[in-house]
Amino acid sequence: MLSSTTSDFCTLPGEVSSTPIMKTSPTRIQNHVIQTISELVPSRPVTPKIFPAPQTRKDSSPRRLTLVESNDANNRALSPEQSSFVDDNDPEIANVVLDDEFVVPKTNGFRVVVQKIQVLQKWIRGTKEPKEPVRPDSFLEKFALGGRMDGEKNEKEMKIKSVLIYFDGQLIFIVVLCLFSFVIDTSKNFYYYWLLVITIAVLYNTLMVIGRSVFWKLQNLMPSVWLVMDYVCDVVYIIDMVINAHKGFLEQGLMVRDLNRLRLNYTKSGPILWDILSILPTDLLYIHLGITCEDNQCPCPVIVRLNRVLRFPRMLEFFDRTETRTNFPNVLRILKVIIYILILIHWNACFYFVISYEIGFSSDNWVYSPNRTKDAGTLAHMYIYSFYWSTLTLTTIGETPQPEKDAEYIFVVCDFLVGVLVFATIVGNIGSMISHMNAARAEFQTRMDGVKQYMELRKVGKDLEQRVIQWFDYLWTNKQLLDENAILTSLPDKLKAELAIHVHMGTLRRVRIFQDCEAGLLVEIVLKLRLQVFSPGDYVCKKGDVGKEMYIVKRGRLTVVADDGHTVFATLGDGSVFGEISVLNIAGNKTGNRRTANVRSVGYSDLFCLSKDDLWDALTEYPEAKRMLFEKGREILLKDNLIDLDAVKRKELDDQSDAEKIKRLETDVDVLQTRLARLLAEFVSGQEKMKQRVVYLERHLDEEKRVRLVMGVDGKS
């Protein structure tokens, strides 16, 4: 029943479904119950008889299941949605009525599902008396659960109850599937922690089921505790099936959250077969075999739970996910291999003990002998000796007693084959993992050996050679031999940028000229930072050198010293920045973009380096940020009185493009034309005024001449 498609027998809470709650009809379920009961008791040709349905009502409307109200005298019929899983015309369930204990108030999605299950359980048990007196059936009366029976009938009663409990367990599982409408994201922590829980349950069943089946003293040590733990693991298995039915999956890069599709995907997957087989109620065989294990009984009845081991792939999934999450994958791989080896040796030890039991203890030197020592009959000695024998045989590294019987030879040959094949594979994997763990050390040693050979070939002095070797040792001690570019090559640019921002952004924001820059430029610059390591006494830069890089101190201590190398002007620590102005190549810098001081490393110092070329490549795509950087650089130089403003202007003119120059010429021409027009207007105005003055003067002169002429004529006369 559990293997049916979930979407066919389950509806979400609150939904109204017209489909049956199970594909299997109630009639088929009841017939299956009766058939199972018939197999448990001596069969005889008796036809089971079902209580007849009440007389058909006068109206032709189909009969519905009634719900008894506690306060109302009248019965209220269930709605069609609530009774959609029941065949209204089925005479076998026509007279199933709920007792007062099953009264459900105002129905909703949850109560509807619970009510359906209660009705179905009530119908399967068949304990409700019919409304009308009917002739009791001899078959059902004989096996009625409430009557007085003798010892044999009580045993049959327990068997029948076990069958009914099995059906109730299936119904409960269906209810759980229907009620929970969550979706589990397998990438979240919840799913990983659940894998840890199911792994513990699987590991318990893998070790203890076979162990308790073979070593009867282990089974009888604390049977109540084993029983509780067994069924706790069964509950974990059932919950695991529910989680698998609600496990989301990706489709076109998006998480699918449709519950029907999730359940359908689970029912069509391969793991559901193993999940169902691992939870089959094989414990029902306890009815025939019993639960307790007698002394010297092998195997014990708990062997019927061996199907619980089929959930082993869930433990493999947990190890795979842990390997991707841990920072120590090599350690986990070795631990995983050790666990597999111990499980294999444990199972082989159990096989050895049970074969010794079947052949007969102490029958020869090969089998286990409980009389070998004083403590040989204890549980600890039984298991330790079997485990010891299994270890020697599978690893083929020790001497074991010679087999004497054919069965013993066959078992030993099989063990040798398993040991050769399995352990050869395991040892090979361990060797590969160990060599992989030492790969970094081997690569480092190869590099250092190459440098040593080069220095030996070129006759390098011992002092310099010692400094080089110490530099390599420092890199190895601080794990700085990683090629970051090679490691991050497989990542997309987006993730690579986020990693670089996480590592370097805090350091980069300490640089004054990069403060308030847009994020895009900072990302470009962060991706171009390179780590450099300087040894004690190394000069990072010297006064007068052309500045081609800027430096950010990650770790270490540096000093600004005079030319003599002894006078210390300043000390630089973690987060200090120097050389940032020189990489901008600002025009008018009085130092000519050369270093103005000597910077020397006191001890081993780790510095992030940004070259001038990398910075300018990044600035080509951000012209506005470039302008802001240059303005900040000029402000810093102006504050320190290290900039020539005239040179800045000349540089600005030289750096102008042809379009800017043409535009500037056009502006100058417009200004000249305006000035010429104004001058021309002034010239014309001056000419008019001049003409007026000339005319005025001419008139004045003419009048004076006329006056003189008149005065001269008067004098002569």
Automatic annotation (TrEMBL):
Keywords: Ion channel, Ion transport, Ligand-gated ion channel, Membrane, Transmembrane, Transmembrane helix, Transport. The chain crosses the membrane at residues 163-184, 190-210, 337-359, 379-397, 409-431. It holds the Pfam family CLZ. The keyword Transmembrane applies. One of its GO terms (cellular component) is plasma membrane. This is Cyclic nucleotide-binding domain-containing protein. Residues 513-632 form the Cyclic nucleotide-binding domain. It is found in: Membrane. One of its GO terms (molecular function) is intracellularly cAMP-activated cation channel activity. SUPFAM superfamilies: cAMP-binding domain-like (SSF51206), Voltage-gated potassium channels (SSF81324). It is a multi-pass membrane protein. Coiled coil: none annotated.
